[in-house]
Design a protein that fits this description.
By secondary structure, the chain is of the alpha+beta class. It has 9 helices and 18 strands.
């Protein structure tokens, strides 16, 4: 199973020209600033917007060639999870999930039975008859997801599936969404503006700016060699992995990271570059995490300087040009990197 698309479409002032390929079992994150063309890209794939030129082929079948071939949305083997979920307010959770099955010709009784099984798999066995207004944000997201999966699509499109949730709910649902996506053996495309979504949910990232692919690769690839200011800001987070041990993490690199609330089990720790402090000597302040390292690279970004520190715990720091001058940093030089425990964001792995 494979997606092969060359998409050229114009919508208002947006001129979209994107080549995209993905394989079965792969999650690809589509990132980009507002107006970059992310949602328009999904709309063309779903058949909600026809191509001007190009082609969309899924598993060897042409869905749109910008000329005489156009498969309408309801006949495409594609499932969509919209940003605001678009659940039918007058239908129960069960009937919402059954709707797509019935639209494809499945008898009502069978569709309800299949929908019930899907809801049970995501922990909603006791919410079959609940209306959307009676569901929490996380529950609504799960209903929208299984509604898309129940039709057994070959391609799953997710448009900002966590955007409608508050921050605390996003941490929990991101972990749950990752598990649910792992059970789907088709192709998954995830549109998001959150780099943590891309880092934790996708194997590969495609970055759009002004309707064009600016950069593509793994998240570490983007962080190591950003090709635009947006990519540098987007991919510049430090992502550390380890096992929670109460108030700290045993990092996979072999060191420890003090982080209250780490709990137990696999954990992802996110540290923004502006939260990393650099010093020539071991810090004596309040930071409980400090490691020696070597300056691997220095990159000027306007009013900021991005410093990549190699060591037992490799980190990216952002400092001012004045701090760079005062610290007399240079590539190959020694430096200490420190992070306050309160500046660390944790998420289940």
């Amino acid at each position: 199973m494979k997606l092969d698309a060359q998409i050229r479409a114009t919508l208002g002032s947006l001129d979209l020209d994107v080549e995209l390929a993905a394989d079965a079992g792969e999650t690809v994150a589509i990132l980009g600033p507002n107006g970059a063309g992310k949602t328009t890209l999904l709309r063309t794939l779903a058949g909600l917007l026809p191509l001007d030129h190009g082609h969309i082929e899924l598993d060897g079948t042409t869905l749109d060639d910008g000329a005489g071939t156009f498969v309408p949305p309801e006949r495409r083997p594609i499932g969509v999870v919209f940003q605001d979920y678009l659940l039918f307010p007058n239908l129960s959770a069960l009937e919402n999930v059954a709707f797509g099955l019935r639209a494809r010709g499945m008898p009502r009784t069978e569709a309800r039975a299949v929908a019930a099984r899907w809801l049970d798999t995501v922990g909603l066995a006791d919410r079959h008859e609940a209306k959307p207004r009676e569901l929490s944000g996380g529950q609504a997201q799960r209903v929208a997801l299984v509604r898309a999966l129940a039709t057994r699509p070959r391609l799953l499109l997710l448009d900002e599936p966590l955007a409608a949730l508050d921050q605390s709910a996003r941490v929990e649902l991101r972990h749950e969404l990752r598990k649910n996506l792992a059970s789907f053996d088709g192709i998954r495309l995830l549109v998001s503006h959150d780099p943590l979504d891309a880092a934790t949910l996708a194997e590969r990232v495609v970055v759009l700016e002004h309707g064009r692919v600016i950069q593509a690769g793994t998240f570490p690839d983007l962080a190591a060699n950003p090709r635009s200011r947006y990519v540098a800001e987007l991919a510049g987070v430090n992502l550390l992995t380890g096992a929670g041990r109460g108030d700290h993490l045993d990092l996979d690199s072999g060191d420890q990271l003090v982080a209250p609330g780490a709990g137990s089990g696999p954990v992802l720790a996110v540290v923004h570059p502006h939260s990393v402090s650099l010093s020539r000597d071991r810090p004596t302040g309040s930071a409980r995490n400090a490691w020696p390292g070597t300056v691997d690279s220095i990159q000027l970004l306007g009013e900021r300087v991005r410093v990549r520190v190699a060591g037992v715990v490799p980190l990216i720091a952002e400092i001012t040009p004045a701090a760079l001058h005062d610290l007399e940093l240079h590539e190959g030089g020694t430096v200490w990197a420190s992070v306050k425990a309160t500046d660390i964001t944790l998420s289940p792995a």
